UniProtKB/TrEMBL annotation:
Name assigned to this protein: DUF6570 domain-containing protein
Domain of life of the organism encoding this protein: Eukaryota
InterPro entries named among the record's database cross-references: DUF6570 (IPR046700)
Ranges where the DUF6570 domain occurs: 1-69
């Protein structure tokens, strides 16, 4: 259902006003055109995609007038252009109040505790760090456990992902879903199902072609190059990464891995629930010690330490043949 419900897009836009003495309200936002959304444009774009894009038709996407109306405030129902309810507006004035209490929406309400954020006239924020959770440093051991368990179960590939509802870049509807304004008709998708095996093209090659086209709209998009660069980098890591062990201990580690395989499965399940969980049994402690001997390495990934070392070695290898370059 498009547009999505109001809860799905809550606090998805943040606007910060600084150096202004006037209070920011819903009425004042009506004068800032970059912050306004057009109901007719949203309705037209969704209707066009539902009627002309095969990926949207096959997914049975429907336009919801109710969801569209819920994106805006009730008092703006008669207006064609209005600010979204999902927009979060904050005002930083530099004195007394950090956030105006009468601002129509904010993540912080002015209270007596605001005085704790001021030291000698300066605004100070406390330093906060997050170490627990799925994306913490501790989850690295969990990911290593899951990957090794996958290998020991003789599976054909390692599937590295977070969560279960993300859209894969290998999905043909990836481009139309993330960038409907760039692939309105659903004909330029990555891994398009209409292509023959002989016509298969990699995501990297297709992205380069999109960016090198004359007057390419993909180049002018503010997020497409950034997102696709991360997609290509992630695929490079997945395709050029492996586990390594010293050659002298390879056979020993291989034999011990098979012995502790049941404990790896239990530890993977335990660390999935709590990344800080400690090994309990003797077999689990042995599995953790064994994991520390297994190193994760990657090759041919631009920006990685190994890639920089390889390029440095290439330069050093050319010095005896071409001599030391003159630097100006």
């Amino acid at each position: 259902m498009l547009p999505p419900a109001d809860d799905d897009v809550g606090n998805s836009i943040c606007v910060l006003f600084t150096g202004a003495s006037a209070r920011v309200t819903r009425d004042t936002l009506l004068h800032f055109k970059p912050l306004l959304a057009s109901k007719s444009i949203v309705r037209t774009l969704i209707s066009f995609l539902v009627e002309n894009n095969p990926f949207y038709r096959e997914a049975d996407v429907q336009f919801s007038e109710e969801n569209l109306n819920n994106l805006f405030y009730p008092e703006h129902a008669s207006l064609e252009r209005a600010p979204l309810r999902a927009m979060q507006v904050c005002t930083l004035e530099g004195h007394d109040n950090v956030i105006n209490a009468e601002t129509f929406t904010s993540s912080h309400v002015t209270s007596a505790a605001d005085a704790d954020y001021y030291r000698d006239g300066d605004f100070v924020l406390p330093s906060v760090g997050y170490t627990a959770g799925e994306r913490s440093v501790g989850s690295r051991e969990e990911m290593k456990h899951i990957a090794l368990t996958h290998v020991l179960n003789r599976n054909r590939f390692i599937w590295a992902r977070s969560g279960s509802s993300f859209l894969s870049e290998d999905d043909p509807c990836f481009l139309s879903s993330l960038f409907p304004h760039l692939d309105m008709f659903g004909i330029g998708a990555f891994n398009h199902p209409a292509r023959l095996p002989s016509q298969k093209i990699s995501i990297k090659a297709q992205t380069e072609n999109m960016l090198r086209r004359h007057q390419s709209k993909f180049v002018g998009d503010p997020v497409f190059p950034f997102i696709m660069w991360n997609v290509v980098q992630k695929r490079n890591v997945r395709q050029n990464s492996s586990f390594t062990v010293p050659e002298s201990t390879q056979m020993v580690i291989q034999r011990e891995l098979l012995e502790v395989a049941p404990a790896l499965v239990d530890l993977a399940a335990k660390w999935k629930k709590d990344p800080r969980a400690s090994p309990v049994t003797h077999l689990e402690r042995k599995a953790v010690q064994l994991l520390r001997q297994v190193q994760f390495t990657s090759t041919n990934i631009p920006g990685s330490p190994g890639y920089k070392l390889a390029r440095r070695n290439e330069v050093r290898a050319m010095l005896p043949m071409y001599g030391t370059p003159a630097l100006f």
